[in-house]
Design a protein that fits this description.
Elements: E1 2-7, H1 11-22, E2 28-30, E3 45-46, E4 56-57, H2 58-71, E5 75-77, E6 81-85, E7 91-95, E8 100-108, E9 112-114, H3 122-125, E10 130-131, H4 134-137, E11 145-149, H5 153-162, E12 168-172, H6 182-190, E13 194-197, E14 200-206, E15 213-218, E16 224-228, E17 231-234, E18 238-240, E19 271-273, H7 285-304, H8 308-322
Parallel strand pairs: 1-2, 1-8, 2-5, 8-19, 10-17, 11-12, 11-17, 12-13
Antiparallel strand pairs: 3-4, 6-7, 7-8, 9-18, 14-15, 15-16
Helix pairs in contact: 1-2, 1-7, 5-6
Bound molecules: NADPH dihydro-nicotinamide-adenine-dinucleotide phosphate.
């Protein structure tokens, strides 16, 4: 049995691990089998994380966070959590490999997943011209006409990045103004390869083997028209990843895990949540890292309040499991 298990390997998870490890809690961090490091692994340059005046590439930042967590004794497991049982004093976390881990406290830092448009052809054309990750797939669209859907920072970042490859990038947005920050907007407006398609939503996709166009509906007049393109990048936000805790943890009306005030405490004792999975609003690497800090401190205080024999049991079991 562990004192603490952290689920998730974005800035919230790794920061919680750094704090928990430095508090001698020997954390186990479950980092996902497919993509450890979370959303920043799909980002190019991160210019707003403090401490990097020249900016830093998203994947490099996440590798540094992992190294820092491991330096103090965090054990990182590259696997997916398939189920959790959070009731009771001892929580269980089951992994895709079948391994079952027990802990006295659990921190959920599971982040959020790309939102989909919800169109019939979206899944079929996914990987065939439809993508959610410009840094992963942009390379395939050299000298092509493509579009990005969305009006937030992600859409602007993707659109700007994609102009390195594509000959033309439409930004399709359902309103006539952007939600993105001023600096990101200005960069996109100044980019000659980017053309904005305002007040338009994508209501259909065409193409057999690969996408060949989209059907747009004007959100003001209701008129529909076709737009030919060879690639579509969807950047319309994210939804918190809460599927593991449905029926166990309370959620907010935004779909995030509900926490008590500014703490990370969920409705279950010993269960904490941090990062994008509790934050429908700010969703920055820096705010996620701060949130991970809060979760580790809350978990540490909770563990300190437990009977000494229970903590000793967790430490003793750890000695047993880590002895070769
Ligand atoms: P946001 O929620 O900020 O923006 C989502 C955009 O997609 C909005 O413009 C929204 O439209 C639109 N949208 C949502 N659902 C649909 C839909 N079904 N159909 C069409 N359009 C839709 O998400 P982001 O991913 O852009 O950003 C998330 C957070 O991450 C933000 O806090 C952002 O600042 C941050 N971020 C920061 C970056 C940076 O600073 N370098 C880079 C990337 C993200 P509407 O405006 O009408 O609601």
């Amino acid at each position: 049995m562990r004192q603490i298990i952290i689920i998730g390997s974005g800035p919230a998870g790794y920061t919680a691990a750094i704090y928990a490890a430095r508090a001698n809690l020997n954390p186990l961090l479950i980092a996902s089998s497919v993509e450890a490091g979370g959303e920043l692994m799909n980002t190019t340059e991160v210019e707003n994380f403090p401490g990097f005046p020249e900016g830093i590439m998203g994947p490099e930042l996440m590798m540094k966070m992992q190294a820092q967590a491991e330096r103090f004794g965090t054990e990182v497991v590259l696997d997916d959590v398939t189920s959790v049982d959070l009731e009771g004093e001892v929580k269980t976390v089951t992994l895709g490999s079948g391994a079952v881990h027990e802990a006295l406290s659990v921190v959920f830092a599971t982040g959020s997943a790309y939102r989909k448009l919800g169109l019939a052809d979206e899944e079929r054309l996914s990987g065939h011209g439809v993508s959610w990750c410009a840094t992963c797939d942009g390379f395939f669209f050299r000298e092509k006409t493509i579009a990005v859907v969305g009006g937030g920072d992600s859409a602007m970042e993707e659109a700007n990045f994609l102009t390195r490859f594509a000959s033309k990038v439409y930004v399709i947005h359902r309103k006539d103004s952007l939600r993105a920050s001023k600096i990101m907007q200005d960069r996109a407006f100044a980019n000659e390869k980017i053309e904005f398609v305002w007040n338009s939503e994508v209501v259909g996709m065409t193409g057999n083997e690969a996408i060949s166009g989209v059907v747009l509906r004007d959100t003001v007049t209701g008129e529909e028209r076709a737009l030919d393109l060879q690639g579509l990048f969807i950047a319309i936000g994210n939804d918190p990843r809460t599927h593991l805790v449905h029926g166990q943890l309370d959620l907010t009306s935004d779909g995030t895990i509900a926490v008590e005030g500014r703490s990370s405490k969920t409705n279950l004792t010993g269960v904490f949540a941090a990062g994008d999975v509790i934050d429908p609003h700010y969703r920055q690497a820096a705010t996620a890292a701060a949130s991970g800090t809060v979760a580790a401190l809350d978990a540490e205080a909770f563990l300190a309040s437990l009977p000494k024999d229970l903590l000793a049991e967790a430490s003793a079991d750890l000695q047993l499991t880590t002895t070769p």
